[in-house]
Amino acid sequence: QMTGKDIATPTRTKEVLEKYGFSFKKSLGQNFLIDTNILHNIVAEADLTKEKGAVEIGPGIGALTEQLGRAAGKVMAIEIDQRLLPILADTLSPYENIEVVHGDVLELDLKALLAEKMAGVEKISVVANLPYYVTTPILMKLLEERLPLENIVVMIQKEVAERIAAKPGTKDYGSLSVAAQFYAETEVAMIVPASVFIPRPNVDSAVIRLKVRDRPPVEVDDQDMFFRVVRSSFAQRRKTLLNNLMNGLFRKEQKDEVIQMLADIQIDPTRRGETLSIEEFARLANESLRRGLIGQ
Ligand code: SAM
After folding, report:
1. CA 79 to CA 85: how far, in whole Å?
2. What DSSP element (H or E) covers 113?
3. What is Dmax (Cα atoms) for the chain?
4. What's the ipTM?
5. Within 13 Å of residue 11, how many CA atoms lie on the same side as its CB?
6. What is the distance in A from the centroid of ligand 1 to the CA of 207?
7. CB atoms within 10 A of CB 58
8. What is the distance between the alpha carbons of residues 69 and 20, in angstroms, rounded to a whole number?
9. Which residues does 271 contact at the CB level (< 8 Å), separation at least 6?
10. Pocket test for ligand 1, best of 7, 129, 200 (most atoms within 8 A of CB)
11. In this predicted model, what pLDDT tens digit does every residue of 122-175 receive, in sequence order?
């Protein structure tokens, strides 16, 4: 590896930024990585090989992109900020296997783009230092569209990383945890100090690794209903499961039937929503549908 020529050193980054007179846009979540070790650690989490592809969201000036180009067979990097395009053309010119796509990742047809740009690769992973202002919408888009992904390895705010990987009964466990864990095995891979970015973000960061599942870990009859049940159960943390369900999901006159159902599926109505496992949420959603208490 040509470590001496890495983009991600403080000196080289400053040179590039000065050469192009680039000024950071806070509104685009622009905090660039200037630590090669961190980049190597991030790339290692994705298990890339020359037979695999990597998709990066927000390449900035190409610090991570370059490392992905060395580790993967093909790289597609999606960048929203037009001002970065000439910079990327310059910094990434040695890498023929990297293609930069201009656009907003939330607007692009990712399925079509993957089919077009990643043809012939064995497996695809998303590897990125995400713009923090859109972390959740980006992750939910990647997961809900059921893209053919192996791993999603992303730097995000530490607090969001902890919520994504949280287990039932902990203070961080919520509908984001259930949603992420429905689609992927989740793991906080490393905590990252603010000193490895310029400018330094005001929040702590962490790299999270999502190993995308082939199929959900539980049988769910109706996915929309499942997530409605989850959201209702978490609506007010201090309330019991029954209270939350009666407030947001069922009608008042269904209360006796709901209590009977909870007894039949062995879920205590006085528990807090945040203690339920994904399997229990699935049982609750499926049984509510089967008894005609929701749906229609
Ligand atoms: N990958 C670079 C690095 O690690 O140094 C830059 C990471 S920076 C945290 C986030 C990048 O995402 C910026 O380059 C920003 O312009 C870009 N970005 C912000 N919103 C975006 C969006 N909706 N779609 C695509 N890129 C976006």
Report:
1. 8
2. helix 110-117
3. 71
4. 0.99
5. 3
6. 15
7. 23
8. 23
9. 240, 241
10. 129
11. 999 999 999 999 999 999 999 999 999 999 999 999 999 999 999 999 999 999
